[in-house]
Design goal:
Number of strands: 0
Largest sheet: none
Order of helices and strands: HHHHHH
Mean pLDDT: 88
CATH class of the domain at 45-140: Mainly Alpha
Radius of gyration: 17 Å
Low-confidence stretches: 1-8
Helix content: 55-70%
Strand content: under 5%
């Protein structure tokens, strides 16, 4: 018996090869315009790699300078939008808020914390653990 899961259950931050491998396990081959175009797939993978790299790099002490962090954040949010990763944008804001809080920039942390809660409530639900974590974090900022 084959497990049936909707394609929307595929984690959004995966690169094309990993997404393809995962959905193949369900007996599905995607033929959408993105998956059917090597150029579009390469562009998408580039943006997703940059998102993942930037989220990792913004936590490094040498990158926790306002001008560097602002650039990394802009790119994450821009590429997240271009990749239609709206359900994950709340998670991105939660990570970003934590980095700014760690730098002592509570005002910017609060701004991203509020965005995290709003986006997570919309996409994950009010009682989702990710939403609750973001809400607790925001409350801890005072």
């Amino acid at each position: 018996m084959t497990k049936s899961r909707p394609a929307t259950d595929v984690p959004l931050n995966l690169l094309s090869h990993d997404r393809e491998e995962l959905i193949r396990e369900w007996g599905f081959k995607c033929t959408c315009s993105l998956c059917s175009s090597a150029a579009k797939t390469a562009d998408s993978d580039f943006r997703r790699q940059r998102i993942n790299r930037n989220l990792r790099d913004m936590k490094l002490p040498q990158n926790q300078k306002q001008h560097i962090l602002d650039k990394l954040v802009r790119e994450v949010l821009d590429f997240g939008e271009k990749e239609w990763m709206l359900p994950q944008v709340g998670d991105f804001h939660r990570i970003i808020a934590g980095v700014y809080a760690g730098m002592g920039d509570i005002e910017t942390a609060r701004k991203h914390g509020e965005l995290a809660v709003r986006k997570l409530r919309h996409f994950a639900g009010f009682d989702n653990e990710r939403t609750l974590d973001a809400s607790r974090f925001l409350a801890s900022l005072g």
